[in-house]
TrEMBL record:
This is FERM1 protein. The keyword Lipid metabolism does not apply. It comes from Vidua macroura. One of its GO terms (molecular function) is integrin binding. It is found in: Cell junction; Cell projection. The lineage of its organism: Eukaryota, Metazoa, Chordata, Craniata, Vertebrata. PROSITE patterns: FERM_1, PH_DOMAIN. It comes from the Eukaryota. The gene is Fermt1. Gene3D superfamilies: Phosphatidylinositol 3-kinase Catalytic Subunit, Chain A, domain 1, Pleckstrin-homology domain (PH domain)/Phosphotyrosine-binding domain (PTB). Belongs to the kindlin family. Its main location: other. It holds the Pfam family Kindlin_2_N. GO terms for biological process: cell-matrix adhesion; integrin-mediated signaling pathway.
Amino acid sequence: MVSSTEYGSHTWDLLLTVDHQHEGVEKEIPLQVTGDLHVGGLMLKLVEKIKIAQDWSDYAFWWEQKKCWLLKTHWTLDKCGVQADAKLIFTTQHKMLRLRLPNMKTVRLKVSFSSMVFKAVSDICKMLNIRRSEELSLLKQSEGTLKKKKKKDKNSKEPATEDILNLCNSPVSSGLPVNPGLYSKTMTPVYDPVSGSPASSTITWFSDGSSAEQNCNILALSHPTCSPEMLAEMYQPRTLADKAKLNAGWLDSSRSLMEQGVLEEDQLLLRFKYYTFFDLNPKYDAVRINQIYEQARWAILLEEIDCTEEEMLIFAALQAQYHVSKLSLSSETQDSTCESEVDEVEAALSNLEVTLEGGNKSNILEDITDIPKLADNLKLVRPKKLALKAIKTYWFVFRDTSISYFKNKESAQGEPIEKLNLKGCEVVPDVNVAAKKFGIKLLIPVADGMNEVYLRCDNEDQYARWMAACVLASKGRTMADSSYQPEVQKILSFLQMKNWTMCSQAASEPENVDMKPECFVSPRYTKKFKSKQLTARILEAHQNVSQMSLVEAKLRFIQAWQSLPEFGLSYYIVRFKGSKKDDVLGVSYNRLIRIDMATGDPITTWRFSNMKQWNVNWEIRQVAIEFDQNVSIAFTCLSADCKIIHEYIGGYIFLSTRSKDHNETLDEELFHKLTGGQE
């Protein structure tokens, strides 16, 4: 009988594959190992046997069958569960990846394939000089969104090399530590009046080469050169089911790229996943603001979000203003003083801070104990199924988060005809400035669905005050909140952009303007109008935005996008527990909406603020959520993995905990606790 202490009694053969580029050197290396050998020791034995002098520090073992990395080098093979049949590949953790940015430009860079996607995105954003990386994630295009392109371009090749911006030499991409001064809120920006970018710091970020400035401009500047033919080749969702396909491919933030089947040189989309843009600052966020603007622009051009003809013309006018300003600025000699350049940014920044922080202190109500209220004559419109709409004027009183209406002003001291509690309701604008139509559509949750109420205002001022009050009330806030006045001003500003008058010169001589209107509107409107008509209408709308700077035009575009009823909604096809038909679930930053798949009408809304807990039954892939007042829902997701919706809910709750006091630091552990799930 052989003694257990003798050599070879516990050893076994393990075949390892080494991913290297050296010709004439074997890639499959057999080693004799024992179960108590730790992973780090296995690496050492392997490198000693290969006898190739190179830096192996970025290498780690990838377990092919289990689809996992062996990153805990102090664990033994027994603890990892590695046996003789295990296929281990010794490969680099950082690999080349192609990313398509929101501005449709492709960058090629080296990314960690072993880190969780959340961390990988953080590193990518540092490379691209984008703050608040938690708002972005990586998206794999689903098969449904690629079908149209494949049919049209069967013989087309991959994009030419010159179309791809190669950033593989940047510090983060090389796995090197980055100078924190370049990615810090305390850095001193040097403002570039053409691009709106902090030029010196951003350019230093990329490299010291002559192409650095060009690389920076690609990310911080927009290039509206899309043609109708280019738009026609891209995926355009027609229905809610089509829109659901757009959100099916989000990667799991708690797993690595390699674990999710992403290979070296694959192409992914880098997109803003969460529509809560925190602490936008024109001084430091040139690239971030531009990429948000581009994501909004393409969403509108491809009709991923619905907007009216009037709104489409506003978006076209703002794009045209950006385009015209960029051309005029780039043709001028750069002789403007530094002081005037800084003033322009300061103006945009102070304006933005008012929006984010809730207005000037002088606007805050002097006596917060006095509950503000609105009282006006408004028209109430009640849709009738088998008759015309019934329109009648009543005396409306808005107090706290409720609207009460009475027969007239004199009867307001008595009992109201009806009292509507707006907390948790959906507020949808119904406006046509040209037709002097200022309506507010309220979808108020009731036991059996949603109660529709339409209010008609007489003018812009009245509409702005009531609309702002309704928006705040839907979130459970009153007019005493400091954000009320800024909300009123934001609505008035948007209405003002819509309220244009025809300029005789622009109307009579549209051919004198060098503009391709097809670049600024969705295909639906290029089919509806002739080119000259479209140019004239865009120039008509352009009169109200012609004095805006580059930065302001982008910020106004983003603000107008945020004002659209469908803004921030990500759609999924689900089957609710107990239901016999499929519905669409809309996930937003503060609520979930159940939507009828056939009509597109909201059925029920649930606010995150009323949510007590949510969990996932991973065996049957069912999401269950409990709300206040004993309301509970459960559903399975049909258009994507339920983990994506689970992560969306947890992600939005995580983002709601951010504050300026915490500056750039992120509680990554809390993010994974809220989004990771326990599969």
